[in-house]
Structure formats: C-alpha cells, structure tokens
Design a protein that fits this description.
This protein is of the alpha/beta class. It contains ten helices and 15 strands. Bound molecules: NADPH dihydro-nicotinamide-adenine-dinucleotide phosphate and guanosine-5'-diphosphate-rhamnose. Guanosine-5'-diphosphate-rhamnose binds next to helix 3 and helix 6. This is GDP-mannose 4,6-dehydratase.
C-alpha cells in the first residue's frame, strides 16, 4: 500500500486530494495546524478513529515553519509521495503578511525537500510542489505555458517563485523526483470564502434569500483561468506517476473577467446584473430582475466596488496553455466554468437555506459574526 503525506490537508485541494488517494487505496497522512477551534471541517467525512484497526487516514500536528516537526513527521511516515499544498494562499493577505508568507510558502518548501534529503529518502519519496499561475504575474505572453518567463506581482507570488526554483534545484542537484504543478485558479463548493468566486456565490445566494443587501468587490476587470479543484488534484497525482519528474501547467485555456463571473453567478439565480459603465462602478452595479421570484430586487444595487479590495500590484490576465499536460499525462479538465459556477451556487444556496431556517426559528446560526 502506497503512503502519501499531504501538507495543507485541511484546505480545499488537500481535502479533494485526500479523497482521491483514499479511493486509490493509499494510506493518507495529513499535516494540520493546531488551532483554537476545529479546523478540519473539509476532511471530517474522511476521519477514521485511530483506535480502530487498518486505519488509512491519519493527521499529524505540524507547521511548515517548523523544520524539526516536518522532519519527524516525514521520518515517522516514510511516505512514497509528498504533496506540499500547505501555504498562506491568499494573494491580497500576502501584502499584509509578507515575511510570514515568505517563510511558509517559500522556505516551507525547502524544509520539506531538505528533510527528505537528510533522511536519505531521495530514492523513495516523490514530491509535488504546489506552484501557481501567480508566478507569471505581469503579462509577458498569453497563453502562459511552462516556458513563459515569470514576473510575480505579490509577496505570495515571490514566495512561490522561491518554492518553484528550490524544487527544480533539488531535482537537478540531488536527482530527486520533485515536480512543480503550475496550477491556474481552481475552485469548488469548498473553496475558501474570501476568494472571489466563493465570495460571489455566497453573496448571490444570500442576496437571493434576502439575507444580505449587497456585496463589496475589488477589481472587476481582472481575468482568470478558472477550473474545478476536483479535476486539478487528479493532475497532481498523475505528475507523480511518470517515469521522470517534470513541471506542468494545469489550466482550462479559457479566461473570464471577475465581472463576467459575477454576471454568470447571479444569473444562475435569475438575477441579471446590469452594468452602467465604468465610472459608475464606484457607486455600485444595478441589478434588474427578470425573474418574478426576485422582483423585490428590481433596480437595487447588489454589487459595490470597494477600492480596499484592490491589490497594490495586480495580475491582470491569466490564461493557461496545458497542452504539455494533455499530451504527456493525458489530462484534460472535465468541468466547464458554467458547470463549476452552477455547482457552487447550488451548494451555497443549500447552505444558506439551512442557515436561514435556523435563524428564522430563533436558533443559533452557522456564522456567529455576521
Ligand atoms: P487553502 O488556502 O484552501 O489551503 C491551504 C492549506 O495550507 C490549509 O490546510 C492551511 O491550514 C494550510 N497552511 C497554511 N499555513 C500553514 C502553515 N504555516 N503550516 C502548515 N500548513 C499551513 O489553499 P488551496 O487548497 O486552494 O491551495 C493549495 C495549494 O495550492 C496552496 O499552496 C496554494 O498556494 C496553491 N495553489 C492554489 C491554487 C488555487 O486556485 N486554489 C492555484 C495555484 C496554487 P488551515 O486550514 O489551518 O488554514
Ligand atoms: P487569486 O484569487 O488572487 O487569483 O489567487 P482571488 O480569488 O483572491 O482573486 C482573483 C481576482 O479577483 C479580483 N477580485 C477580488 N479578489 C478577492 N479575493 N476579493 C474580492 O473582493 C475581489 N474583487 C476582485 C482580484 O483582484 C484578483 O484579480 C488564487 C489563490 O488560490 C492563490 O493561492 C493561487 O496561487 C492563485 O489563485 C492561482
């Protein structure tokens, strides 16, 4: 039975990857951070009582800033594969916590690689590094592929650049099987609530249910290549099953603006967003409703722009060319963006219907601070 160790197992990708690997018969170990509240909601359905026999899912307390802890866990587990998904993954937040982001996202990668080397596991253990389309940053060429030059535009992107190159360096210097997946944005119903897709689908659901009046967004003109996390974790696994380690771009090849995404999400609920021209966006975007269910929203401002959500330096346009991955790994995405948005909207609508039911009945709600 193969053993996998996943850092960032409590995050979106960690949860989907753990599910995938368990389905393939792996023993899965995850690194979780100590928190003052439970932080395992995304993997609770995978939990197995460690007192039982034949347990294939285990968690270890740890942190990417702690070399000794990582070395001990890797020594104990002796993994065949390590997926380094742990990171301070929010680009905007990285401007506020640049040193921490560099430590965890950049040096954290080194700590994993060096632990594997010092433990003499270089022959046994294969490593996947979660690299990012944020490496491309300032637009140099489109679509972006494995040969496109990097020009990161945030402390997050710069930290991930270190992670990318230290992975390449350990592969070349020590012959390690270590790969970078250069993944473009990927989302799902369990996406973190402050990334723009989930922020929009949550808000659209709550507005439709009359639980919220409007949502504040930042730059509506940024364009991203959005895919489904379920498809992307499959590509991570494939990268570690090859004869030799290589780096791959994972993307859909379709780019969409934040504005278009908002239109798509709200229209799933029968709300048509009508944009009044660029200048007026500072005041908000007016919605006009064609669906009788939401007549009460006719003419209301439901999307507002708050410059606080702008980044000091922005990545304007991402569109990935995943042809190498398609050719060599036989991978291509199964989900389209409209299918992804529909799934997210349906999940958030369901979530907030339950929340509203509890609130209306005078019970405690899902969200304590709203
Ligand atoms: P999430 O933010 O959902 O998950 C990040 C995970 O990292 C969480 O489990 C988090 O723990 C953990 N983590 C954060 N800080 C530390 C630390 N100091 N030590 C150990 N673990 C830590 O991210 P995603 O699942 O979306 O992304 C997975 C990886 O892929 C990340 O490295 C991200 O940067 C990268 N990536 C993501 C893309 C995307 O579009 N989703 C695209 C390209 C790259 P906790 O739950 O306790 O916060
Ligand atoms: P990104 O994702 O920065 O691409 O990083 P995010 O969803 O945060 O932003 C996408 C684009 O939307 C614009 N935007 C807003 N973003 C947020 N979060 N909130 C808003 O209100 C808002 N309004 C507009 C942003 O300016 C940006 O242009 C994600 C993360 O998962 C990284 O870890 C990963 O490496 C990259 O994707 C690929």
């Amino acid at each position: 039975m193969k053993k996998a160790l996943i850092t960032g197992i409590t995050g979106q990708d960690g949860a989907y990857l753990a599910e995938l690997l368990l389905g393939k018969g792996y023993e899965v170990h995850g690194v979780k951070r100590r928190s003052s509240i439970f932080n395992t909601a995304r993997v609770d359905h995978l939990y197995q009582d460690p007192h039982e026999k034949d347990v294939r899912f285990r968690m270890h307390y740890g942190d990417l800033s702690d070399s000794m802890n990582l070395t001990r866990i890797i020594q104990e587990v002796q993994p065949d594969e390590i997926y380094n998904l742990g990171a301070m993954s929010h680009v905007k937040v990285s401007f506020e916590t640049p040193e921490y982001t560099g430590n965890v996202d950049g040096l954290g990668t080194l700590r994993i690689l060096e632990a594997v080397r010092l433990l003499n596991l270089t022959e046994k253990t294969r490593i996947y590094q979660a690299s990012s389309s944020e490496l491309y940053g300032m637009v140099q060429e489109v679509p972006q592929n494995e040969k496109t030059p990097f020009y990161p535009r945030s402390p997050y992107g710069v930290a991930k650049l270190y992670g990318y190159w230290i992975t390449v360096n350990y592969r070349e210097a020590y012959g390690m099987y270590a790969c970078n997946g250069i993944l473009f944005n990927h989302e799902s119903p369990i996406r973190g609530e402050t990334f723009v897709t989930r922020k929009i689908t949550r808000a659209a659901a709550r507005i439709a249910l009359g639980m919220q009046e409007s949502v504040f967004l930042g730059n509506l003109d940024a364009r991203r290549d959005w895919g489904h996390a379920k498809d992307y974790v499959e590509a991570m696994w494939l990268m570690l099953q090859q004869d030799k380690p290589e780096d791959y771009v994972i993307a859909t090849g379709v780019t969409t603006s934040v504005r278009e995404l908002a239109i798509m999400a709200f229209s799933e609920l029968g709300m048509e967003l009508e944009f009044k021209g660029k200048g007026l966006e500072e005041k908000g975007v007016v919605v006009s409703c064609s669906n009788t269910d939401f007549k009460s929203l006719e003419g209301k401002v439901v999307v507002r722009v708050d410059p606080d959500y702008y980044r000091p330096t922005e990545v304007d346009l991402l569109i990935g060319d995943a042809s190498k991955c398609k050719k060599e790994l036989n991978w291509s995405p199964k989900y389209s963006l409209p299918e992804l948005v529909k799934e997210m909207i349906e999940a958030d609508l369901e979530l907030f219907k339950k929340d509203k039911f509890l609130r209306d009945g005078g019970h405690e709600t899902l969200n304590y601070f709203e």
